[in-house]
Amino acid sequence: MVERLSEYPAMSSAGSQIYEFGDYRVDAIRRVLTDGDGNRVELTGKAFDALIYFLRHPGIVIDRSTLLGALWPDTVVEENNLNQTVAALRRALGRDYITTVPRRGYQFAAEVRKKADLPSSGSSRDGSPLSRKSVVASVVGIVVVVVAYVIFGAISKAPVGVQRAPKVAVLPCDNLSPDAKDAYLALSLHQEILEQLGKLGGLLVVSRSSMMNYADDRPPVPEIAELLGATAVMECSVRYSAGRVIVTAQLIDPETDSQIWSQSFPGDLADVSTVINIQAEIATQVAGALGVDYLPAEQQRLERAPTASLDAYAEYLRAKQSVTWGGYSIGYSNDDFHRHINKAIEADPDFALAYSDRAIGHLSRSMDALISHHRADEPDANNDAPGQVLSLARQDATRALDLDPTIGRAHAVLGAVEHVLGKTESAHSRFRRAIESSPNDAEILSFIVGFYLRGGQQREALELLAHIKRLDPVDRDVGFYFYLAGDRKTALQLLRRMLKLNPDDAYIHSLIGYCLAIDGMAEDAEPALRLAEELYRRNLQVSQQGLSPGTLSTLAYSYSRIGLADDVQRLSEQFKQVSDVAPVHPMRRAEIHLALGNVDRAYDVLSVIAERALPPFVSLELDFVLNTYNDPVLEEPQFVALRRKLGGEAFPE
Known about the structure:
Layout: E1 16-21, E2 24-27, E3 32-34, H1 45-55, E4 61-62, H2 64-71, H3 79-93, E5 98-101, E6 105-108, E7 113-118, H4 132-156, E8 167-170, E9 174-175, H5 183-197, E10 204-205, H6 208-211, H7 221-228, E11 232-241, E12 244-253, E13 258-268, H8 272-289, H9 296-303, H10 310-319, E14 325-326, E15 329-330, H11 335-347, H12 352-375, H13 385-403, H14 408-420, H15 424-437, H16 442-454, H17 458-471, H18 476-484, H19 488-501, H20 506-518, H21 522-543, H22 549-561, H23 565-579, H24 586-596, H25 599-610, H26 619-626, H27 637-647
Parallel strand pairs: 8-10, 8-11, 9-11
Antiparallel strand pairs: 1-2, 1-7, 2-3, 4-6, 5-6, 11-12, 12-13, 14-15
């Protein structure tokens, strides 16, 4: 039977019931909660009711329906009300006292001491009457807190709880399978677990792109957590043999480097639901261990099998094994991906996620085709291949959403297609749907930021980047996006943080040197640029290749901004050797001409590009359109006209 708060035995006015737990003290009659220093802790009425119920049932797992009936005995309310009430208690007390038991309910975990020793209401803890002054002070305090909350909320524009939510970093799963051909399972399940955890709105999950930095080399857990800003770090392993799989996971507290939770999940892969149930169970167990509540709808999303076909799901996992999506790169165009994703759809023609990912593949190939079109000296005006592939992307994304309207990636693909076709309003409507559907998927959000920048929406891009930075704190594309959005200070902070993880990454050193050179900080820029060039050449000695045209033009331009004319000339000669034997993007030629001071030739190159009715797809074009170079030459009237023509809506008014 559900025990209702109204059914508790009446208490005499001679004394009030006192509960103590941890450093806290509760007077149930006067409804006063105080901390170890005797300071009053403010709670809403419903949160206080919930606290009393927990104190009267310590150590007992209380299911949600029982707690709902006790707190709202005569009212029908949604479970979200209960989640908010428990969350308010946890904010006031800390997360250690009330734990979530996955799929069962809540448990008050602290030892509770019960007393009945104080005089009746109207007295303070030391027996003196509560003064009017203290009451007024309490009211003023509440008003100040509320006003501060409203002001902060208005400034941050972030969902309530986003900044306080626990953040988990999931390390790549160790492959323990004896057969090398089954290695894909560990890599793919890591990505699937990340996506499952990302469905829980109360939990921040470090993105896959950041976590893959730890695929080979893993520093101590506390060091990983500090760099990523993680509340907890999860390790996992996958062993698959003879149709049986065992996934083992453990959650580690980085402050103490001790285990919070650990469990093994064995299963038979004869049924695809086995894998889905394991992923869902890991997600709910992690949420419970971190005190994160989740809505019934989120639970249903976790447990929903994307396909009933084991063959389709296996091919889907193989397709996702070696692809990335985010930043400026969409790595879904390779043949292996398309072969496996096509097999997945053949095995299950109603596999929504497979259609969504194949749509990304088509979009990736269309982008490649459009960039090749840009790069050609004389592009074929009759070449409609990019348009044909875009149509396939739209077709698959639409099919995915017909089957499951909540797939954020499919909305993002449609947004990209609309943007390419110049339908800006409908594109951004799709992007908003994608963000709503997948608020914690850094790859989707990073992809959308690129289009916000292409559309001249710097403010929207920076707002979204602030959230992406929490999810993807060591991804170099995120740092570069901050640079493109005009926030160089944050860009440099992120890029330097990434060097702690990848000290020999030539690209990161190059970006740092480039940003410093643009800002005229020659003393700091030169060593970064020289180290980047050295690392590039050292890495390329193995492949016996020279520096790429993009690397040469960017380094040359950076050197030019800090007055190193000899280096500019040296790299320009190498650029000419490369461009004489292979197609080079015209924007790179324009960059080299600017580095050399050949303004007229740079203008001629940009004039040809501006005649092509194509949006600015690659970062270099945005550099010219937005003049992130801060180059005075690009502010001359003839160049302003070209930039406006080239950039269209992306050109800042």
